[in-house]
Recover the amino acids of this structure.
Protein backbone atom coordinates (compact mmCIF):
# COMPACT_ATOMS: atom_id res chain seq x y z
CA UNK A 1 0.00 0.00 0.00
CA UNK A 2 2.86 2.35 0.84
CA UNK A 3 4.11 2.03 -2.72
CA UNK A 4 1.16 4.06 -3.99
CA UNK A 5 1.87 7.78 -4.13
CA UNK A 6 -0.64 10.63 -4.35
CA UNK A 7 -0.18 11.32 -8.06
CA UNK A 8 -0.65 7.65 -8.82
CA UNK A 9 -3.86 7.57 -6.76
CA UNK A 10 -5.35 10.72 -8.32
CA UNK A 11 -4.55 9.46 -11.83
CA UNK A 12 -6.27 6.20 -10.98
CA UNK A 13 -9.36 7.92 -9.63
CA UNK A 14 -9.65 10.13 -12.73
CA UNK A 15 -9.27 7.20 -15.12
CA UNK A 16 -11.64 5.08 -13.07
CA UNK A 17 -14.42 7.67 -12.99
CA UNK A 18 -14.36 7.87 -16.80
CA UNK A 19 -14.18 4.09 -17.17
CA UNK A 20 -16.96 3.22 -14.80
CA UNK A 21 -19.26 6.00 -16.02
CA UNK A 22 -18.77 4.57 -19.50
CA UNK A 23 -19.53 1.04 -18.26
CA UNK A 24 -22.71 2.16 -16.50
CA UNK A 25 -23.85 4.16 -19.53
CA UNK A 26 -23.27 1.14 -21.80
CA UNK A 27 -25.18 -1.06 -19.40
CA UNK A 28 -28.10 1.32 -19.12
CA UNK A 29 -28.23 1.66 -22.90
CA UNK A 30 -29.40 -1.94 -22.94
CA UNK A 31 -28.21 -5.48 -22.60
CA UNK A 32 -24.65 -4.76 -21.51
CA UNK A 33 -23.50 -6.49 -18.33
CA UNK A 34 -20.97 -4.98 -15.96
CA UNK A 35 -17.55 -6.65 -16.17
CA UNK A 36 -16.03 -8.44 -13.20
CA UNK A 37 -12.33 -9.24 -12.68
CA UNK A 38 -11.74 -12.15 -10.26
CA UNK A 39 -8.62 -11.81 -8.09
CA UNK A 40 -7.33 -15.13 -6.72
CA UNK A 41 -8.22 -18.32 -8.59
CA UNK A 42 -8.60 -20.63 -5.59
CA UNK A 43 -11.33 -23.00 -4.54
CA UNK A 44 -14.18 -20.57 -3.81
CA UNK A 45 -13.56 -18.42 -6.88
CA UNK A 46 -13.28 -21.27 -9.36
CA UNK A 47 -15.84 -23.73 -7.93
CA UNK A 48 -18.58 -21.42 -6.62
CA UNK A 49 -18.32 -17.96 -8.12
CA UNK A 50 -17.01 -18.22 -11.69
CA UNK A 51 -19.51 -20.92 -12.80
CA UNK A 52 -22.41 -18.70 -11.57
CA UNK A 53 -21.93 -15.81 -14.00
CA UNK A 54 -24.08 -17.68 -16.56
CA UNK A 55 -27.07 -17.10 -14.25
CA UNK A 56 -26.43 -13.34 -14.00
CA UNK A 57 -28.52 -10.67 -15.71
CA UNK A 58 -26.23 -7.71 -15.04
CA UNK A 59 -22.78 -9.21 -14.50
CA UNK A 60 -20.22 -11.00 -16.63
CA UNK A 61 -16.73 -12.38 -16.07
CA UNK A 62 -14.25 -10.38 -18.17
CA UNK A 63 -10.83 -10.61 -16.46
CA UNK A 64 -8.69 -12.82 -14.21
CA UNK A 65 -5.88 -12.03 -11.77
CA UNK A 66 -3.57 -14.77 -10.48
CA UNK A 67 0.05 -15.40 -9.51
CA UNK A 68 0.00 -18.77 -11.29
CA UNK A 69 0.33 -18.52 -15.11
CA UNK A 70 -1.01 -22.08 -15.60
CA UNK A 71 -4.26 -21.14 -13.82
CA UNK A 72 -4.64 -18.03 -15.98
CA UNK A 73 -4.19 -20.15 -19.14
CA UNK A 74 -6.62 -22.81 -17.95
CA UNK A 75 -9.44 -20.53 -16.78
CA UNK A 76 -8.98 -18.01 -19.61
CA UNK A 77 -9.60 -20.87 -22.05
CA UNK A 78 -12.55 -22.19 -20.05
CA UNK A 79 -14.27 -18.79 -19.74
CA UNK A 80 -13.18 -17.29 -23.06
CA UNK A 81 -11.16 -14.45 -21.49
CA UNK A 82 -8.68 -12.72 -23.85
CA UNK A 83 -4.99 -12.78 -22.85
CA UNK A 84 -5.06 -8.96 -22.58
CA UNK A 85 -7.53 -9.32 -19.66
CA UNK A 86 -5.30 -11.70 -17.65
CA UNK A 87 -3.12 -10.10 -14.97
CA UNK A 88 -0.51 -11.18 -12.44
CA UNK A 89 -0.42 -9.61 -8.96
CA UNK A 90 2.62 -7.56 -10.07
CA UNK A 91 0.77 -5.90 -12.96
CA UNK A 92 -2.61 -5.76 -11.15
CA UNK A 93 -2.64 -1.94 -11.07
CA UNK A 94 -2.83 -1.89 -14.88
CA UNK A 95 -6.52 -2.78 -14.55
CA UNK A 96 -7.10 0.98 -14.35
CA UNK A 97 -6.45 1.14 -18.11
CA UNK A 98 -9.00 -1.58 -18.89
CA UNK A 99 -12.49 -0.15 -19.50
CA UNK A 100 -14.01 -3.65 -19.68
CA UNK A 101 -13.46 -4.08 -15.92
CA UNK A 102 -16.10 -2.33 -13.80
CA UNK A 103 -15.90 -4.44 -10.61
CA UNK A 104 -13.01 -6.29 -8.96
CA UNK A 105 -13.88 -9.32 -6.80
CA UNK A 106 -11.20 -10.11 -4.16
CA UNK A 107 -11.14 -13.84 -3.30
CA UNK A 108 -7.68 -13.99 -1.69
CA UNK A 109 -6.52 -15.08 1.79
CA UNK A 110 -7.95 -12.71 4.41
CA UNK A 111 -4.83 -10.68 5.13
CA UNK A 112 -4.62 -9.68 1.45
CA UNK A 113 -8.19 -8.32 1.23
CA UNK A 114 -7.39 -4.78 2.37
CA UNK A 115 -4.40 -4.25 0.09
CA UNK A 116 -6.11 -5.49 -3.08
CA UNK A 117 -9.44 -3.79 -2.32
CA UNK A 118 -7.65 -0.48 -1.83
CA UNK A 119 -5.54 -0.90 -4.97
CA UNK A 120 -8.70 -1.75 -6.94
CA UNK A 121 -10.56 1.32 -5.63
CA UNK A 122 -7.56 3.48 -6.46
CA UNK A 123 -7.62 2.05 -9.98
CA UNK A 124 -11.16 3.45 -10.19
CA UNK A 125 -12.98 0.11 -9.81
CA UNK A 126 -15.91 -0.94 -7.66
CA UNK A 127 -15.03 -3.73 -5.23
CA UNK A 128 -16.65 -6.95 -4.06
CA UNK A 129 -14.52 -8.39 -1.23
CA UNK A 130 -14.88 -11.79 0.39
CA UNK A 131 -15.59 -12.27 4.09
CA UNK A 132 -14.01 -11.57 6.51
CA UNK A 133 -13.71 -8.08 5.02
CA UNK A 134 -10.17 -7.77 6.47
CA UNK A 135 -8.23 -8.82 9.54
CA UNK A 136 -8.74 -5.68 11.66
CA UNK A 137 -11.11 -2.75 12.19
CA UNK A 138 -8.36 -0.39 11.05
CA UNK A 139 -8.02 -2.20 7.71
CA UNK A 140 -11.82 -2.13 7.19
CA UNK A 141 -11.84 1.61 7.83
CA UNK A 142 -9.00 2.14 5.34
CA UNK A 143 -10.93 0.13 2.70
CA UNK A 144 -14.10 2.18 3.23
CA UNK A 145 -12.10 5.42 3.03
CA UNK A 146 -10.40 4.30 -0.22
CA UNK A 147 -13.70 3.40 -1.89
CA UNK A 148 -15.36 6.60 -0.75
CA UNK A 149 -12.37 8.68 -1.85
CA UNK A 150 -12.55 7.07 -5.28
CA UNK A 151 -16.33 7.47 -5.50
CA UNK A 152 -16.71 3.71 -5.83
CA UNK A 153 -18.93 1.01 -4.26
CA UNK A 154 -17.61 -1.53 -1.79
CA UNK A 155 -19.57 -4.69 -0.98
CA UNK A 156 -18.73 -7.74 1.15
CA UNK A 157 -19.46 -11.30 -0.02
CA UNK A 158 -22.18 -12.09 2.52
CA UNK A 159 -23.98 -14.44 0.12
CA UNK A 160 -26.63 -15.63 2.64
CA UNK A 161 -28.33 -12.26 2.34
CA UNK A 162 -29.28 -13.27 -1.23
CA UNK A 163 -30.49 -16.76 -0.28
CA UNK A 164 -34.31 -17.16 0.02
CA UNK A 165 -34.47 -19.13 3.32
CA UNK A 166 -32.22 -16.63 5.06
CA UNK A 167 -34.19 -13.73 3.61
CA UNK A 168 -37.41 -15.30 4.94
CA UNK A 169 -35.83 -16.04 8.34
CA UNK A 170 -34.86 -12.37 8.66
CA UNK A 171 -38.38 -11.26 7.76
CA UNK A 172 -40.03 -13.73 10.16
CA UNK A 173 -37.63 -13.12 13.05
CA UNK A 174 -37.74 -9.34 12.81
CA UNK A 175 -41.50 -9.37 12.13
CA UNK A 176 -42.29 -11.32 15.31
CA UNK A 177 -43.76 -14.36 13.51
CA UNK A 178 -42.92 -16.55 16.51
CA UNK A 179 -43.35 -13.71 18.98
CA UNK A 180 -40.61 -11.29 19.98
CA UNK A 181 -37.21 -13.01 19.77
CA UNK A 182 -35.86 -14.08 23.15
CA UNK A 183 -32.85 -16.18 22.25
CA UNK A 184 -30.78 -17.02 19.19
CA UNK A 185 -28.35 -19.91 18.99
CA UNK A 186 -25.98 -19.98 15.99
CA UNK A 187 -23.37 -22.68 15.36
CA UNK A 188 -20.84 -22.85 12.54
CA UNK A 189 -17.80 -25.07 12.23
CA UNK A 190 -15.93 -27.71 10.28
CA UNK A 191 -12.96 -29.96 10.79
CA UNK A 192 -10.06 -27.92 9.35
CA UNK A 193 -7.58 -29.82 7.20
CA UNK A 194 -3.92 -29.22 8.11
CA UNK A 195 -1.37 -27.32 6.01
CA UNK A 196 -3.40 -24.45 4.59
CA UNK A 197 -3.27 -20.65 4.82
CA UNK A 198 -6.35 -20.64 7.09
CA UNK A 199 -4.14 -22.04 9.88
CA UNK A 200 -1.40 -19.45 9.38
CA UNK A 201 -2.31 -16.31 11.34
CA UNK A 202 -0.16 -14.10 9.08
CA UNK A 203 -2.49 -14.93 6.18
CA UNK A 204 -5.80 -15.59 7.96
CA UNK A 205 -5.71 -13.01 10.76
CA UNK A 206 -7.17 -15.62 13.13
CA UNK A 207 -8.69 -19.09 13.28
CA UNK A 208 -12.22 -20.43 13.09
CA UNK A 209 -13.76 -17.11 14.13
CA UNK A 210 -12.47 -15.21 11.08
CA UNK A 211 -13.39 -17.99 8.70
CA UNK A 212 -16.56 -19.76 9.83
CA UNK A 213 -17.61 -18.33 13.22
CA UNK A 214 -18.27 -15.09 11.37
CA UNK A 215 -21.42 -16.79 9.97
CA UNK A 216 -22.78 -17.25 13.51
CA UNK A 217 -22.01 -13.63 14.34
CA UNK A 218 -23.38 -12.24 11.08
CA UNK A 219 -26.58 -14.30 11.44
CA UNK A 220 -27.14 -13.04 15.01
CA UNK A 221 -26.78 -9.48 13.69
CA UNK A 222 -29.02 -9.93 10.63
CA UNK A 223 -31.71 -11.88 12.50
CA UNK A 224 -32.03 -9.12 15.10
CA UNK A 225 -31.13 -6.14 12.92
CA UNK A 226 -29.26 -4.85 15.96
CA UNK A 227 -25.66 -4.30 17.06
CA UNK A 228 -24.55 -6.14 20.23
CA UNK A 229 -23.97 -4.17 23.43
CA UNK A 230 -21.67 -6.72 25.07
CA UNK A 231 -19.73 -9.85 24.18
CA UNK A 232 -18.42 -12.63 26.41
CA UNK A 233 -16.18 -15.27 24.80
CA UNK A 234 -14.41 -18.44 25.90
CA UNK A 235 -11.73 -20.16 23.79
CA UNK A 236 -11.05 -23.90 23.71
CA UNK A 237 -7.94 -24.76 21.70
CA UNK A 238 -5.66 -27.78 22.00
CA UNK A 239 -2.29 -26.11 21.40
CA UNK A 240 -0.60 -29.51 21.05
CA UNK A 241 -2.61 -30.03 17.82
CA UNK A 242 -0.22 -28.88 15.04
CA UNK A 243 -3.13 -27.19 13.23
CA UNK A 244 -3.53 -24.70 16.06
CA UNK A 245 0.01 -23.39 16.52
CA UNK A 246 -0.95 -19.82 15.56
CA UNK A 247 -4.77 -19.73 15.36
CA UNK A 248 -7.69 -20.60 17.64
CA UNK A 249 -9.91 -23.67 17.26
CA UNK A 250 -13.18 -23.19 19.12
CA UNK A 251 -14.82 -20.09 20.54
CA UNK A 252 -18.14 -20.03 22.40
CA UNK A 253 -19.42 -16.47 22.54
CA UNK A 254 -22.51 -14.73 23.87
CA UNK A 255 -23.83 -11.48 22.48
CA UNK A 256 -26.32 -9.27 24.29
CA UNK A 257 -28.43 -6.99 22.06
CA UNK A 258 -30.23 -3.72 23.00
CA UNK A 259 -33.69 -5.36 22.78
CA UNK A 260 -32.59 -7.89 25.39
CA UNK A 261 -32.06 -10.74 22.87
CA UNK A 262 -29.20 -13.04 23.80
CA UNK A 263 -27.29 -14.89 21.07
CA UNK A 264 -25.31 -17.94 22.12
CA UNK A 265 -22.87 -18.64 19.30
CA UNK A 266 -20.27 -21.24 18.39
CA UNK A 267 -17.27 -21.14 16.07
CA UNK A 268 -15.23 -24.31 15.55
CA UNK A 269 -12.39 -25.76 13.49
CA UNK A 270 -12.74 -29.24 15.00
CA UNK A 271 -16.41 -30.17 14.60
CA UNK A 272 -19.12 -29.73 11.98
CA UNK A 273 -21.98 -27.27 12.58
CA UNK A 274 -24.21 -25.19 10.34
CA UNK A 275 -27.39 -24.03 12.05
CA UNK A 276 -29.23 -21.28 13.77
CA UNK A 277 -32.39 -21.22 15.87
CA UNK A 278 -34.52 -18.20 16.68
CA UNK A 279 -36.63 -18.75 19.79
CA UNK A 280 -39.53 -16.39 20.31
CA UNK A 281 -42.25 -16.19 22.96
CA UNK A 282 -44.70 -18.07 20.69
CA UNK A 283 -42.47 -20.66 19.01
CA UNK A 284 -39.24 -20.98 17.06
CA UNK A 285 -37.57 -20.85 13.63
CA UNK A 286 -34.96 -23.56 13.03
CA UNK A 287 -32.51 -23.51 10.13
CA UNK A 288 -30.17 -26.46 9.53
CA UNK A 289 -28.26 -26.27 7.32
CA UNK A 290 -28.60 -22.53 7.63
CA UNK A 291 -25.87 -20.88 5.56
CA UNK A 292 -24.67 -23.71 3.30
CA UNK A 293 -24.16 -23.41 -0.46
CA UNK A 294 -27.42 -25.34 -1.00
CA UNK A 295 -29.90 -27.69 0.72
CA UNK A 296 -31.18 -25.22 3.33
CA UNK A 297 -33.87 -26.58 5.66
CA UNK A 298 -36.29 -24.52 7.72
CA UNK A 299 -38.71 -25.69 10.42
CA UNK A 300 -41.16 -23.38 12.16
CA UNK A 301 -43.05 -24.01 15.39
CA UNK A 302 -46.05 -21.75 15.97
CA UNK A 303 -49.58 -22.17 17.35
CA UNK A 304 -48.62 -25.55 18.79
CA UNK A 305 -47.64 -26.98 15.37
CA UNK A 306 -44.14 -27.80 14.12
CA UNK A 307 -43.88 -27.77 10.30
CA UNK A 308 -41.17 -27.65 7.66
CA UNK A 309 -41.26 -24.62 5.38
CA UNK A 310 -40.25 -25.46 1.81
CA UNK A 311 -39.53 -22.67 -0.68
CA UNK A 312 -39.46 -23.01 -4.48
CA UNK A 313 -35.99 -23.23 -6.02
CA UNK A 314 -35.01 -19.68 -6.99
CA UNK A 315 -34.21 -18.80 -10.62
CA UNK A 316 -30.90 -17.34 -9.48
CA UNK A 317 -28.51 -18.86 -6.93
CA UNK A 318 -27.35 -16.84 -3.91
CA UNK A 319 -23.96 -16.45 -5.68
CA UNK A 320 -25.48 -14.91 -8.82
CA UNK A 321 -27.84 -12.83 -6.67
CA UNK A 322 -24.85 -11.41 -4.84
CA UNK A 323 -22.94 -10.64 -8.06
CA UNK A 324 -25.95 -8.96 -9.67
CA UNK A 325 -26.78 -6.97 -6.53
CA UNK A 326 -23.51 -5.05 -6.75
CA UNK A 327 -23.96 -4.48 -10.50
CA UNK A 328 -27.48 -3.16 -9.87
CA UNK A 329 -26.18 -0.88 -7.09
CA UNK A 330 -23.51 0.50 -9.44
CA UNK A 331 -26.06 1.09 -12.20
CA UNK A 332 -28.61 2.75 -9.91
CA UNK A 333 -26.01 4.44 -7.66
CA UNK A 334 -27.36 2.71 -4.54
CA UNK A 335 -25.53 1.41 -1.46
CA UNK A 336 -25.27 -2.41 -1.38
CA UNK A 337 -27.25 -4.02 1.48
CA UNK A 338 -23.93 -5.50 2.65
CA UNK A 339 -21.59 -2.56 2.06
CA UNK A 340 -18.17 -2.18 3.68
CA UNK A 341 -19.84 -0.89 6.87
CA UNK A 342 -21.38 -4.35 7.36
CA UNK A 343 -17.97 -6.04 7.19
CA UNK A 344 -16.59 -3.42 9.56
CA UNK A 345 -19.42 -4.08 12.06
CA UNK A 346 -18.48 -7.79 12.14
CA UNK A 347 -14.78 -7.02 12.60
CA UNK A 348 -15.57 -4.68 15.52
CA UNK A 349 -17.34 -7.57 17.28
CA UNK A 350 -14.62 -10.08 16.34
CA UNK A 351 -11.96 -7.82 17.89
CA UNK A 352 -14.12 -7.64 21.05
CA UNK A 353 -14.53 -11.45 21.04
CA UNK A 354 -10.75 -11.88 20.91
CA UNK A 355 -10.32 -9.29 23.67
CA UNK A 356 -12.95 -11.00 25.85
CA UNK A 357 -11.37 -14.45 25.53
CA UNK A 358 -7.87 -13.04 26.15
CA UNK A 359 -8.88 -11.05 29.22
CA UNK A 360 -11.51 -13.46 30.56
CA UNK A 361 -14.20 -10.82 30.94
CA UNK A 362 -17.26 -9.34 29.24
CA UNK A 363 -16.37 -6.56 26.79
CA UNK A 364 -18.75 -3.66 26.16
CA UNK A 365 -19.13 -2.58 22.56
CA UNK A 366 -21.33 0.46 23.10
CA UNK A 367 -18.44 2.37 24.67
CA UNK A 368 -16.06 1.99 21.70
P1 LIG B 1 -8.07 -20.99 -1.50
O1 LIG B 1 -6.84 -21.36 -0.75
O2 LIG B 1 -8.78 -22.08 -2.24
O3 LIG B 1 -7.75 -19.84 -2.55
C1 LIG B 1 -6.92 -18.74 -2.23
C2 LIG B 1 -6.29 -18.20 -3.50
O4 LIG B 1 -5.39 -17.15 -3.16
C3 LIG B 1 -5.48 -19.26 -4.25
O5 LIG B 1 -5.74 -19.17 -5.63
C4 LIG B 1 -4.03 -18.87 -3.97
O6 LIG B 1 -3.15 -19.21 -5.03
C5 LIG B 1 -4.15 -17.34 -3.85
N1 LIG B 1 -3.06 -16.74 -3.11
C6 LIG B 1 -2.43 -15.62 -3.47
N2 LIG B 1 -1.45 -15.32 -2.61
C7 LIG B 1 -1.46 -16.27 -1.67
C8 LIG B 1 -0.67 -16.53 -0.52
N3 LIG B 1 0.32 -15.68 -0.16
N4 LIG B 1 -0.94 -17.61 0.21
C9 LIG B 1 -1.95 -18.45 -0.12
N5 LIG B 1 -2.73 -18.25 -1.23
C10 LIG B 1 -2.49 -17.18 -1.98
O7 LIG B 1 -9.06 -20.28 -0.48
P2 LIG B 1 -10.62 -20.02 -0.66
O8 LIG B 1 -11.35 -21.05 0.11
O9 LIG B 1 -10.95 -19.82 -2.07
O10 LIG B 1 -10.78 -18.65 0.17
C11 LIG B 1 -10.47 -17.38 -0.41
C12 LIG B 1 -11.30 -16.30 0.28
O11 LIG B 1 -12.67 -16.56 0.04
C13 LIG B 1 -11.15 -16.24 1.80
O12 LIG B 1 -11.18 -14.91 2.23
C14 LIG B 1 -12.35 -16.98 2.33
O13 LIG B 1 -12.77 -16.53 3.60
C15 LIG B 1 -13.38 -16.65 1.26
N6 LIG B 1 -14.40 -17.73 1.14
C16 LIG B 1 -15.70 -17.36 1.19
C17 LIG B 1 -16.69 -18.33 1.09
C18 LIG B 1 -18.13 -17.93 1.11
O14 LIG B 1 -18.99 -18.82 1.15
N7 LIG B 1 -18.45 -16.65 1.06
C19 LIG B 1 -16.34 -19.67 0.94
C20 LIG B 1 -15.00 -20.01 0.87
C21 LIG B 1 -14.03 -19.02 0.97
Amino acid sequence: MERLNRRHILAGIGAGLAVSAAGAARAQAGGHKLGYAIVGLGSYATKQIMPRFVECEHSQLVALVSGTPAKLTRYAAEYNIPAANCYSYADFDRIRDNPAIDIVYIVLPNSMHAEYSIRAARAGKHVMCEKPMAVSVAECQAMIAASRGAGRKLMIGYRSRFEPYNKLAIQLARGGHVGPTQLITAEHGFNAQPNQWRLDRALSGGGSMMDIGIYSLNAARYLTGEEPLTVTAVETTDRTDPRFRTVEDRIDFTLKFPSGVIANCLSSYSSGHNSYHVIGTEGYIDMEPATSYEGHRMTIRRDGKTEPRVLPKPAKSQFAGQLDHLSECVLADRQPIVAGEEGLADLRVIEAIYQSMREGRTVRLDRA
Remarks:
- The radius of gyration is 21 Å.
- Residues 161-303+347-364 form a domain with the Dihydrodipicolinate Reductase; domain 2 fold (CATH 3.30.360.10).
- The mean pLDDT is 93.
